[in-house]
Amino acid sequence: MAKFTAKPAELLKIDFKTPKTDWMDTPVNIREHMYCHPAKAKDLEVVDFPNIHEWRPVDENWNLPENWKEIVLNGIKERLQKYRSFHVFMDICVRCGACADKCHFYLGTGDPKNMPVLRAELLRSVYRKYFTTGGKIFGKTAGARELTEDVLKELWYYFYQCTECRRCSVFCPYGIDTAEITMMGRELTNLLGLQLGWIAGPVANCYMKGNHLGLEPHTVKSNIEFMIDDIETITGIRVNPTFNRKGAEILFVTPSGDLFGVPGVYTAMGYLMLFHELGLDYTWSTYASEGGNFGFFTSNEMAKRLNYKIYAEAKRLGVKWILGGECGHMWRVLHQYMDTWNGPADFLEVPKSPITGTVFENAKSLKMIHVIEFAADLIKHGKLKLDPSRNDHLKVTFHDSCNIARGMGMFEEPRYVIKNVCNHFYEMPENTIREKTFCCGSGTGLNASENMELRMRGGLPRANAVKYVRDRYGVNTVANICAIDRATLQASMDYWVPGTAVAGIHELIGNALVMKGEKERTQDLRLEPLPGKEGVE
Amino acid sequence: MKILFPFFAVILLVLLAVVGVKGANLHFLFGVVVPYAAVFTFIIGVIYRVLKWAKSPVPFSIATTCGQQKTLPWIKQNKLENPSSTLHVIGRMALEVLLFRSLFRNIKGELKDSSRLIYGSDKWLWLAGIAFHYSFLIVLLRHIRLFAEPTPSYLHLLETFDGFLQIGAPRLFMTGVILLAAVTFLFLRRLYIPQVRYISLSADYFPLFLIIGIATTGILMRYFLKTDIVGVKELTMGLVSLSPVIPKGVGAIFYVHLFLVSILFAYFPFSKLMHMGGVFLSPTRNLTGNSREYRRINPWNYPVKVHTYEEYEEEFRDKMKMAEIPVEKE
Ligand code: HEM
Ligand code: SF4
Ligand code: SF4
User: Fold this and answer.
1) HSE-up of A69 (CA within 13 Å, CB side)?
2) Which of A43, A212, A537, B132 has the largest CB neighbor count within 10 A?
3) What value, to the nearest 5°, has the Cα angle with vertex A228 and ends A222 and A233?
4) Do the beta carbons of residue A286 and residue A243 sit within 8 Å?
């Protein structure tokens, strides 16, 4: 595969004209840089996924199992019976088009099949053909079509051009959530062994080793030890976290992305500093060392299998409650699925901040809270000594991650924290934040490198809004609370809005936090000189 | 094709009724049998569809949260966009059903000068949608006068409001005109907005043509080709009292109107018009957002294969010990 070299100006020539041919008569064109490589057999074997075989998206023949059609149709049937959402959403769309221009992939590609409504119609047409009387009798006139190999390829291609961000669902008059349909569609591809490498790899890693990156226990620890050294360089204080410690009050679980690579590690340094300063009785776990859940991008069952570790580890260690790190899809899964899958967590207590005494009634069943909720409560109670001027070199905007926004609704806490640790905060335009926020363009396991064009196109609406605040206010930092953002948004910023950095909120907290007995700070968490302190060391 | 087919289908239906009544004298078929069959299909069909949906469970708490969650006491929750109690959900649903809340959010995204994405307010669809549905509802309610003797007094009130623009006699009802205008707008936007045209199916044009046909024949009947309203009422009263009669002198235009309405009713359960029922069952809207506060039970939750801590420690024990990470078995 050739390297992706298209310049931003080329990508911006987006053609929004609809094709001459009807969408059903427009065959799918599987293009380089728009899709991810297939999964490796060994990764699928680890978790016993079915129909593992060799195939390549651009090949004519995908080597499908002989009864593939039966598998798909039975798969649809089973899911119609299991999910009212899927069943209702297959039936009630009026094709009003209100969702059409709400999808970042449509805005970035102009491809009509990336309009949420048409993405859903790709599958709905098959549903009509095999599951509705009208579709059986009237066929194409009723919007029904035969399931062929070409149709399957089209489903595959477009369900892996949806990041399940749910923006479309906010605008649909019936709340039709194309993300829900994409999830079903991806489960179907999964039944046929048509999984992506970039998803299957992390899933296999997470299953066996506890985290997506495949960090083994000693590496989890040594990675954190590197951060401890850096923290000591910056503050003169040596923090000492514990691992797999029984009897700790709190288990801390964060996406493994925070343990490896920048800017994730800066966020993790922020956690370490905050918890140390509070004297929190907490432990990391090397077994439940992943908050995120790439299983969620394959099937409901796989997501549950990976998610199991969190409660299991909390139980084994005998902690009282669980604190979760900054992540997006992780919190959709925790907030809306975990308790149902692997609860009830009756062996835990309702989370209570040992510092402020606040009881988090909003998590009284799940027993897990978001570290930003925890931090906002600390700041509100005046428990942290903060020097926001140490972030004065940053002009900050906040990117709401999709899942936190539309699958949880945490909008005020992160803003409250940012405003307390930074002096310069600017919101992006109203239609691009909060519940209307745009995806980074690389969620749901689409954060590979071979699909860079797709990522840059999908990232355009977000980047464009960042550009707006950069040009207007000189914004140079996009704060967020999502590990996928930290891993992927930088590429999109470098492409569309060069010179803009991406940072987790705990990095900003770490900069501003005045710790007891710290030396005079001359560097921020990136080991770069603080404003006015250049050349001090 | 997608437009012509449903268009001619509706024309054919009109002709069918005209020929049936004028040519073949099938008054009883078009005046009694078809309406009964249509109402029967409608009722059974709608119940069947709703029950079928209801049979599929809602395993997970998947509300689309469109506002601030319930959290710390000093942060104001957005109860209508992120409900945490049944009352909040009722409020959210009422806004959706009565005011099309989500559609009201509509914005239009455009790429300007190949460099800036801008999002402008776009409320036309909402406006036309509201105008169409409410005028449809009022027109429907006004028809109650044909099925009740004496005419209920609230209908007089409704008619006074609706017909306050007194233009000649019979009084001009605004809703009829608004209905026709709104549904024409909805058709034209399907035709002229390229994206909407691209996603439209025959099944999207058919109900629009049908409703245009119904409204047109209705208006024709009321203001232009006067029908014998006494005769019509005799027929409709006969239908509701289950002792059907076919009065003489009711014009063919009435049978056309009635036939199209019957088709709409019969078609309803098999079509996207079922959104009327579906909107109430939509899990992203009718669930509370506080899923950490109360556990949702999935009726088909089943045990899955997991990788236990013991298996993990078995594999990594030596490495863990070397790194001084506590283990269960030494
Ligand atoms: C609870 C009751 C209902 C609600 C909340 C509702 C809501 C909506 C909404 C939000 C739309 C999309 C916007 C639009 O195109 O106007 C729509 C479309 C539509 N509705 Fe309803 N509706 C209801 C009942 C009905 C009924 C009883 C009919 C009977 C004919 C109907 C016919 C239509 C049609 C034909 C469209 C499509 C318009 C188009 O093609 O653009 N609706 N409805
Ligand atoms: S907004 Fe909803 S009803 Fe309208 S086209 Fe999109 S999915 Fe269908
Ligand atoms: S969920 Fe997001 S990515 Fe998927 S269709 Fe809707 S708007 Fe597009």
Assistant:
1) 8
2) A212
3) 135
4) yes
Inter-CA distances, A218 with A215, A238, B317, B319, B320, Å: 8, 20, 10, 6, 6
For residue A141, pLDDT beyond 90: no
Can you give B288-319 as a three-state secondary structure string?
CCCCCCCCCCCCCCCCCCCCCHHHHHHHHHHH
- For A146-158, give one letter per residue: b (16+ CB within 10 A) or e: ebeeebbbbbbbb
Q: What's the pLDDT score for residue B156?
A: 83
DSSP-H helix ranges across chain B: 4-18, 27-28, 34-55, 86-99, 101-104, 124-142, 153-162, 174-192, 194-199, 202-219, 229-240, 252-267, 275-281, 283-286, 309-322
Alpha helices in A279-400 (DSSP H): 300-317, 329-333, 339-342, 371-380
Task: Tell how strand B107-112 and strand B116-121 pair up.
Answer: antiparallel
The minimum CA-CA distance between B170 and chain A, rounded to whole Å, is 36
Whole-number pLDDT of residue B166 = 61
Q: Interface pTM (ipTM) of the complex? A: 0.95
DSSP B84-114: -SHHHHHHHHHHHHHH-HHHHT-EEEEEETT
- For residue A96, the enclosing domain spans 23-195
pLDDT digits (tens, 9 = 90+) for A329-371: 999 999 999 999 999 999 999 999 999 999 999 999 999 999 9
Unique residue bearing structure tokens 């069959």: B37
Taking residues A183-193, what's their average pLDDT?
A: 98
Query: CA-to-CA distance for B3 and A135, rounded, in angstroms?
Result: 18
**How far is the C-alpha of B264 from the C-alpha of B262, rounded, in Å?**
5
Q: Please give the domain boundaries of chain B with CATH numbers for all domains.
A: 4-322 (1.20.950.20)
3-class state of residue B150 by DSSP: coil
* Separation CA B315–CA A261 (nearest Å): 26
* Cα–Cα distance, B98 to B31 (Å, whole number): 34
Q: Are residues A229 and A152 in the same domain?
A: no
Within a domain: residue A529?
no
Ligand nearest to the CA of B195: 2
Minimal CA–CA distance to B231: which of B245, B213, B215? B245
The residues with which A323 forms a beta bridge, in sequence order, are: A252, A369
Q: Residue A5: phi, psi to the nearest 5?
A: -125, 0
Residue A206: HSE in the Cβ half-sphere, 13 Å Cα cutoff: 29
User: Could you check whether the bond before residue A344 is cis, i.e. omega within 30 degrees of 0?
Assistant: yes
Residue B301, chain A, CB below 8 Å: the answer is yes
Q: Would you state the pLDDT for residue A536?
A: 55
Average pLDDT on A462-482 reads 97
Sequence-ordered strand ranges (E) for A223-367: 250-253, 282-284, 321-324
Say whether both A158 and A266 belong to one domain. no
Q: Which two tokens stand for residue A486?
A: 């930290």
The answer to which of A132-141, A184-193, A437-446, B9-18 has the lowest mean pLDDT is A132-141
Whether this prediction's pTM lies above 0.90 is answered by: yes
Residue given tokens 């907290």 in the structure block: A509
Instruction: Tell me which residues of chain B, numbers 118 to 177, contact chain A at a CB-CB cutoff of 8 Å.
Output: 119, 125, 129
Residues A184, A255: one domain? no
Find all residues with CB under 8 Å of A426, minimum gap 6, and list them: A395, A396, A397, A469, A472, A473, A475
B186 lines ligand 1 (CB under 6 A): yes
Take atom 7 of ligand 3 and give the residue whose Cα is closest. A103
CB contact under 8 A, B129 and A339: no
pLDDT in tens, B188-222: 999 999 999 999 999 999 999 999 999 999 999 98
The yes-or-no verdict on residue A533 having pLDDT over 80 is no
d(C-alpha B20, C-alpha A488), whole Å: 67
Tell me, using a 6 A CB cutoff, whether residue B276 lines ligand 1.
yes
Same-domain check for residues A33 and A65: yes
Q: Tell me the chain B residues in contact with residue A81 when contact means C-beta distances shorter than 8 Å.
A: 55-56
Cis bond leading into A461, ω under 30°? no
Count of domains observed in chain A: 2
